[in-house]
Amino acid sequence: MNILELLSLNSYYGHEQVLYGINLAIRKNAITAVIGPSGCGKSTLLLTLNRMLEECGGRAEGEITFAGKDFFSYPKEEIRRRIGIVFQKPSPFPLSIYRNLTYAPVYYGVRDKKKLNEIVESKLKVAGLYEEVQADLHKSALQLSGGQQQRLCIARALTVEPEILLLDEPCSALDIKNTANIEQMLLKLAQDYTIVIVTHNLAQAKRISDYTAFLLNGELVEYGETKKVFSRPQDRRTWEYIEGIYG
Amino acid sequence: MYKVLDVAFSKLIKLLTIFSLLLLAFVVVFIFRESVVFFKEVSVLSFISGRSWNPLLAADNLGIFNIILGTLYVSLVAIILALPIGVGMALLLAGYVEGRVRAIIRGIIDILAGIPSVVYGFIGLLVLVKWFETRLDLSSGESVLAGGILLAVMVLPYVISTCHESMEKAYRRHAPSSQALGVSRSYLLREIVLPESRRAIIAATVLALGRAMGETMAVMMVIGNAPIPPTLLGKCQTIPSLIALEMGMAEVGSLHYHSLFASGLVLMAVLLAINLVFYFVRRSAFMK
Amino acid sequence: MRKMENSRLFKLWMVVSTLIVLISVGFIIGYIVLNGIKSISLDFIISSPKGLPLGSEGGILPAIVGSLLLMLIACGFASFLALATAIYVVFYCQSSQIENIVHIIVQCMAGVPSIVIGLFGYTFLVAKLGLGRSLLSAGLTLGVMVFPFIEVRIEKSLQEFSTAALQSSYALGVSKAYTLFKLVLPQCKEDIVAAITLAGGFAMGATAPIILTGAVIFAPIPSSLSSPVMALPFHLYILTGEGISLEKAYATALVLITLIFAINIISIALTSRRKEVGS
Ligand SMILES: Nc1ncnc2c1ncn2[C@@H]1O[C@H](COP(=O)(O)OP(=O)(O)O)[C@@H](O)[C@H]1O
Ligand SMILES: [Mg+2]
After folding, report:
1. Distances (CA, A) of B47 to B50, B257, C32
2. What residues of chain B lie within 8 A of the CB of C116, using their CB?
3. Could you tell me which of A168, B2, B176, C60 has the fewest CB atoms within 10 Å of its CB?
4. Phi and psi (nearest 5°) for C90?
5. What is the pLDDT of residue B187?
6. Domains defined for chain A, CATH in brackets
7. Which residues of chain A have pLDDT under 50?
8. What is the C-alpha end-to-end distance of chain A, expressed in Å?
């Protein structure tokens, strides 16, 4: 089943068009990888899907269906709650670990202390961070290491129970061990959530994703099951990219 | 619930901002309008070129030429004294002082900036002016020089912190490669850091000039307040002290009263002109 | 040879400059403190001016209270508006044109000499609005003076707040106001309070704006916003200018700078605490 369907989506920054006629159907409870060279519009695609694009000075047009309804008919706050995003650079709030995780739930009306504790604990566990930080939940999140910060950001995105989780190169600043941690976690998450991950790392896309989309210069060149995209690409440009010709 | 509050809050913020801006704009326009009334009676030219100031006589006795000169003279003396001292100290701070000591010295400079101008005036009167009278054997120590020295001390913190900021950056940027060449710190400061900070020095000059020309109390207490052609060791009058001294005597709405607003406007115009000149000097001389 | 000499001169220049500044500060502070301490007493702080001419005996309690009240009114009035303006510019303003207009107006106002602001307060608040020479007129005039000072500092602090954290907050679907109150303001709180206290010190030391808007030679502790007030800097000016009492002037100066330094120290302590938390 498709949770999100894009039909000739165009995205712009001012007068500059960045995405051209993207047609893409995102499968529910699967991991979709978006690959492509730098500047091809991967981040812009994610920002469009979470309606953060307008916060960054851009705009989008086209037809998007989300959970069977017109994407643009939802209030943008609802979209942002139901489609979470994790940015490339870890961006914890300058608050304690605990307050980072209760920040959004409190906004959405959870006041019960016990409930909040429960959310914090469970999301930290999902993100594989609980063991490491449980002793000191009230220390500043800025004191965590880069890998821990990124996992905290993922946990934070999950605190509002989104249906889709968008991740923009979440491992680009991390070492192998932290990357492996996050990959483990994503595979587990895919049972309950739909995941779209932008990655520079082709091996990573191959390892964890069910579907792969290849973007080039703002156009969707190829989209299909990961296995097929990597073993028998339909488009010559995909093949060239996979073979490392674009770098 | 947050959504309602959100809308209400954004409206409130917008309203308060509009109110603040209208208020500020109102102040500026008000000063402008009160001066314009005066310029309907007396031409701008005769006002700024007139050599005699005697508000009790007729309108053609309202000329602030000497007062403008006095304002400029006192401020220039201040800048000439403060600039080399401030730049020298900023260089030393950038190159030789670090960590706690630097923090302490910066704290000391902040102390200088925090002393109210009336306290400066008080000390200026009791120490500087008296010293001039006893040591230099002047009949009156109240003078352009006394005002200039006092103002120099007052603007020093602004000169130092403006220069220091840029010099510290320049020093940090170049210190590693300069040290690698085995060159001494003072050579680096002299040959690279100082020339690279000329923008900051110009900015500091403009800032200090603005401060000096707008200063009221300290200057008023030590310059003697006589609207005569200024000389270094003689009395003079500045625009701010003129306003401070005479606005109590001028009846609201009278020509004298409007002339005080007009001199305030002239002061602001001079400041604006200085800012503009420096802006263009900086653009043309340093953009290359 | 030539090089050596240049280098010596250069070093000499730096050292002499630094010494001049340090000696000036030492002299000013030493002069006030040493002279002031001789004539200060508890009685001076807690009693009213007496004697003939008035002020040659007694104390300065009404001036201390008056100065504190003036500072409170000025800072309350200015910081309320300045905070709103800064928040608007940083978070709500969509057009860079409007932002520029705000900056130009604030810069303009920051460039107006304090005596001219006093002139405005005298004509508009005291005369035209009929508030008279009062605590309120003087406080508001001081408020207009410190508004740009506070606004610029608060805006800088808000602007420095991490964009990434802001975006993350909006990305959770959270509103601007919630982001501001739960994330940004708690983080910038120390800076904001520091800006306001610093402005308080500035307002407390200012004489020019209050000469004709509210400060008087003698008044009891003000009973309402419309009473005239005594203020420390104005009192010092009168004591010296009229040659009433040098001793009392020293002591008044000491009280004034002590108060201002106390305020500045609070502000510095706040800023450094912020730095520790942020690291
Ligand atoms: N905020 C922005 N304003 C204007 N142009 C932008 C902005 N962000 C990205 N772009 C441009 O959009 C294009 C796509 O960027 P992006 O989506 O970040 O690429 P990717 O994530 O694939 O590296 C780039 O050419 C980039 O220069
Ligand atoms: Mg990107």
Report:
1. 5, 14, 41
2. 31, 240, 243, 264, 267-268
3. B176
4. -80, -40
5. 87
6. 2-242 (3.40.50.300)
7. none
8. 34
Query: pTM of the predicted model, to two decimals?
Result: 0.87
Helix-strand-coil percent breakdown of chain C, rounded to 5? 75, 0, 20
Model pLDDT, residue C4:
66
Residue A166: in which H helix or E strand, if any? strand A164-168
At C58, phi and psi to the nearest 5?
80, -155
Distances (CA, A) of A96 to A99, A103, A125, C108, C183: 5, 10, 17, 41, 11
Pocket of ligand 1 (CB under 6 A): A 13, 16, 18, 36, 38-44, 56-57
Q: What is the mean pLDDT of chain A?
A: 92
Spatial separation of the C-alpha atoms in residues A215 and C144, rounded to whole Å: 56
CB B35 within 8 A of CB B262: yes
- Residue B28 pLDDT more than 50? yes
Residue of chain C minimizing CA distance to B8: C177
* pLDDT at position C42 over 90: no
Ligand lying closest to the C-alpha of residue A38: 1
A27 beta partners: A2
The pick from A10, A20, A34, A44 for probing ligand 1's pocket by mutation, whose C-beta has the most ligand atoms within 8 angstroms, reads: A44
Tokens of A177: 């061990």
- The ligand placed nearest to the CA atom of residue A87 is 2
Which domains occur in chain B, in start order?
A: 68-250+265-287 (1.10.3720.10)
Tens digit of pLDDT for each residue in C225-276?
A: 889 999 999 999 999 988 888 889 999 999 999 999 999 888 888 777 655 5
Query: How is chain C split into domains, by residue range?
Result: 2-39, 42-278
Contact C21 B160 (CB under 8 A): yes
Tokens of A74: 């939802």
The per-residue pLDDT for range C200-212, each reduced to its tens digit, is: 999 999 999 999 8
Q: Where are the alpha helices (DSSP H) in B181-236?
A: 185-188, 194-196, 198-214, 217-222
Which architecture characterizes domain C42-278 according to CATH? Orthogonal Bundle (1.10)
In 10 A of CB B288, how many CB atoms? 4
Q: Is the predicted pLDDT of residue C174 greater than 80, yes or no? A: yes
**Predicted complex ipTM:** 0.90
